[in-house]
Amino acid sequence: MRFIVCIKQVPDTTEVRVNPETNTLIREGVPATVNPFDLYAVEEALILKEQAGGEVIAISMGPPQAEEALREVISMGVDKAILISDRKFAGSDSWATSLTLAAAIRKIGEFDIIFTGKQAADGDTAQVGPGIAEFLDIPQATFVRKVDELNPDQQTIRLQSMWEEGSERLELPLPCLITTVKELNEPRLPSLRGKLTAKKAEIPLWSFDELAVEEKHVGLAGSPTQVIKVFPPPPRAEGELFADADPDEAARIIADKLTEKGLL
Amino acid sequence: MLETCNLCGACVPVCPEDALSIEEVKRTKEIDPSEWCGVWVAAEQRHGKIQSSTYELLGAARGVAEKLEVQVTALLLGSDVENPESLLAAGADEVFYIKDENLAHFGLEPYTKIIADLILERKPEIVLGAATFIGRSLLPRIAVRVHAGLTADCTGLDVDTEKRLLLQTRPAFGGNIMATIICPQHRPQMATVRPKVMKPLDEPYDSNGTVTEVSVDSLSNRVKFLEFVADDTSQINIAEADIIVTGGRGLQDPKNFALIEELAGLLGSAVGASRAAVDAGWINYSHQVGQTGRTVSPKLYIAVGVSGAIQHLVGMQSSDFIIAVNKDPNAPIFKVADVGIVGDLFEVVPKLIEEIKRRKET
Ligand SMILES: Cc1cc2nc3c(=O)[nH]c(=O)nc-3n(C[C@H](O)[C@H](O)[C@H](O)COP(=O)(O)OP(=O)(O)OC[C@H]3O[C@@H](n4cnc5c(N)ncnc54)[C@H](O)[C@@H]3O)c2cc1C
Ligand SMILES: Nc1ncnc2c1ncn2[C@@H]1O[C@H](COP(=O)(O)O)[C@@H](O)[C@H]1O
What we know:
- Chain A is of the alpha/beta class.
- Chain A has helices at 36-52, 67-76, 94-108, 128-136, 192-200, 247-260; strands spanning 2-6, 9-11, 17-19, 24-26, 32-34, 55-61, 80-84, 113-117, 140-151, 156-163, 166-173, 176-180, 205-206, 226-231, 240-242.
- Chains A and B meet through helix 3, helix 4, strand 9, strand 10 and strand 11 of A and helix 1, helix 4, helix 5, strand 7 and strand 9 of B.
- The complex binds flavin-adenine dinucleotide and adenosine monophosphate.
- Flavin-adenine dinucleotide (FAD) binds next to helix 7, helix 8, strand 17 and helix 10 of chain B.
């Protein structure tokens, strides 16, 4: 079987800030990592490959340095990786990203399951997975917390998709797309051998010319959404810290607040 | 700087000197915006009950529609939905109720097809949905099908009345930045809106409209729905809760989580958890707040024995009011807390429970 995992290199978002004077992102010195949710996607693909045989291909669209992220997942056991990179793809929103990744997947050819993370930690949109599924016209299961059974003979997969107040158990025909949440598994650490393989691995680069996409549909030009402003979130009002309240006092302080807010 | 640039393009529109460009951007105008009119709300029902996030959306939609001087339309898909008329009182000028027994439970494929077809046929200029699990599965597919821009998980909506543009504000980078987004060249302008941020109307809306039932023919669905398994540990879902009481590793033991549950029970609130508590297996993942869990914005967030690691803070720092109990005066949770109590949770929480019980009795 063939499993394709879409991974994104993201800055460690907990360290990204807005410069309040210029309202621009400060990214200097912020380390880049594989989007945390994508590791669950990689792990699940590896688990299913171990069960059913086949190969796992990771793809990433991004600047040339996104290759590092691909090497990282090769060290976990991914068989092949492809980097999709071109200045023409710069500034893609989730619509244009989904279109470009879908075109790359079409170029790969046959596949059984595509995995994406639930959302990327930088954009937080959670839209690229469903977008790819729609461009490829395949069924999707979103926010998957558990795979119950992959049945290669019947070409189906049974899984649990997370909802606010429970889960849905679903059966999807293959090929399909799955977006993953943290509960799904525990991503493995790279092995020593994996790291060596990753170092030597050849990672082909597909640029605009290699994909069947139109220029007007990719990058900033092809993105329906436009960011017109970025700014820091409004600061929280200074809080009160009660450092030496005894437990009775502390309980009263909290209860008074609850009463004040009409919550009691 | 160039090294770390991932070409997201966010710097281009905000450069004060106009000094940045990624490439010559020629956006193609794919549609004539003047043909598109009205604000639509994709209502959400579960087990036949319209969700509170829908009423919030209708409140927000009224504000937008009044500025644009257009009508609000609610789309409701289901079979035996309780009180569809409530959508009128909540702000809709008309309701399309697409009624079919196969739509009782959410099905991504039929829902996508029905709504996308209606959008292309009737051309609304704005379509809003809730940023719930359903909304965030469904709207991205619709947006791709109708070739529209979609802004995820908005926390602010405004209108540029002159250009008839929806100004969509949302947090990104884990809440460290806010971004305002527009979709000038495509219609409809689509957004999912974070639950609990928008307010439903205070007064019932005096709607002249009616609920129109619409039937649909053949609904195909490649996904087979097997069953819905309710999460028995969550009576109240954290995304829609007004109050959340969250427990962290400071509770030390799964049985101590009962303290959190008791407090939550008294306040009628939902139970949240830090990742440390979830990873220890004390409570299941659907309760996890933070970067790899859920983002919540309740009216009141009470963090007990939670250190407030940045990955936790990004999931809850937009709460209206935050109370924290932690024995470490330097715990980062106190940086976002409106009321911080330095103290031992095993002493403070039982006293608090007593105090609340007392006040409730009197
Ligand atoms: C990629 C990534 C993603 C992550 N995503 C998330 C996420 O989504 N959500 C999340 O929560 N975390 C997340 N984390 C983990 C996060 O970094 C912290 O490790 C975690 O939040 C800590 O949980 P905690 O506050 O319960 O535990 P600790 O950090 O161990 O804090 C326990 C606190 O309890 C206090 N305490 C102990 N005993 C008592 C007592 N008797 N009375 C009062 N106070 C007491 C201590 O002073 C301490 O501050 C993520 C980490 C990474 C690397
Ligand atoms: N540039 C990209 N390259 C590869 N995969 C991506 C890219 N952007 C998003 N994805 C995938 O889509 C998921 C959701 O991303 P997003 O919609 O941006 O929140 C991520 O977890 C990735 O699996």
